[in-house]
Model the fold of this input.
Amino acid sequence: MKKQLNYIVFLFLLGMLFRQSDVNAQSLNIKNDVFWNTKDGQPIYSQGGGIFRFADPKSGIEKYYWYGVHYKEAETYRNNPSVTQGRNTFQAVTCYSSTDLINWTFENNVLTRTELDQHGRTTWVGRLGVAFVKELNLYAMFVQHGSEVLIAVSKTPSDDFTWHQKISMKEMIGTTNTGDQTVFTDDDGKSYLVYSYGSGRNKIYVSEIGVKEGKVNLLDCTQVFKGESREGNCMFKYKGRYYMCASNIYGWDASFAYYLVSDNVRGPYEPVNNMLVMKGSEADYAHVTQTGFFFNIKGSKQETVVYCGDRWADFAGNGLGYNQWFPLSFDGKEPYFNSLSSWNLNSKTGEWTVANDNNYAKNGSFEADRKLVPMHVKPVQTELMGWTTTVIEGNKVSLDSTTSPVLNYNNTEADRKIVIGEKSLNMGDKIAFKRKVSQSIASSPYVQVKDGYYTMTAKVKNSSGFQRLEMYAKSAGKLSRVSFKNENPAWKTIELKRIAVKGGKLEIGFVAEGAANSFCQVDDILFVNDR
Done:
């Protein structure tokens, strides 16, 4: 009897072990700030698109289909990110499929340049989405094409899409083109084009997708916003509420993530004509992205909304990777952006966790800052995003360009072969100076900075003339620091190990005390748990 009982206990424990292993196997890592590959190691090229759930026509199994544009320059920049690309050359709309949102398979170049060139000269092609049109049993792609909107169709999600018709938006909104656009599909299967006014982008509209005179078209037009210019227009639904989201009109550069909320897809959206900045996106311009699109995972344990940001790095030079994805959290109806470099997602349960290798430093490569700071043009800026500059001695930071020190530095092509992106931190002045550049890191309601040991690294390059030049981290009254005041004419990696963090908060930064015209550049700051 005892042997039988022991055997039953053994089987129970073995089952628990396999069950736990199975759960862990379903939790897969999403890593930002890198270029992504398919599961067989091929580069993913997908910008300005969306993810939609359709049944595989062969197996009947529901899959996620990810559509986006492959620009020729995306290949060039990926191979050599030291040079920002000045043109955008359409190659194709790509389609990838997945069952878990992490392992992607290339399906097809579903809309090719060859197909488009048959109908005239191909210029700008971008900002797209796909909807299933039940009345015609067709999949319809809505994509910006030159100064109008192209509708292309296919009988399956991943076969070739062919030219259906090109429509002018003039009659609906007053411009032939949309400013930016995406496709949103509601729970009832209805799909909508979400887009902005073509000139100035200070209005946002919602139009239902359907059939008109036997062709796929837009059935109506509802204006849901009028105010500040916004682009990157996209929408998601959570707990019965509709969230209209957008970015500032900063060209290829990143910005805050904005939102409005409504109980109806056609509005009214609140606050009326006054988009709010999504909390969590302030310190690093939504992890150096523009709003791209969203997808929902309705798991067995929770529903998770994933923000899929576009980083137009090929054209902005603002880092590595074109696709940056983040889980959102909610306080009631208020969304919160979790800026994470690495996190784990269980697509079965919908649960997510912070990965061990997450970098807790915000704007650590200084790519959120569009121009040299202080910046006189929109947005007027006297501080680096996520960082606080404290001038102890020397010229004060101001919009007076004759005296103010410049807080960041334009990396050269040679620099960018070693450090990431166009910008780095700059500490220098025309006169002798003492300065501290710091960042406070603390647990949020949704992401805990756990007690334990951490490692901080940075790349530095500096002149001679420093009496003091240090990188530091401080938590619960304990200070860790490393000096690098000797001249470093080439980029050098410095490191602080076993930084003790207690109480879920700390301060990191740099202290400089230098002679007139001495300088120090800092880039690629990492603050990672030692686990």
Remarks:
- The first strand starts at residue 27 and ends at 31.
- Residues 1-25 have pLDDT under 50 and may be disordered.
- Residues 2-26 form the longest helix (25 residues).
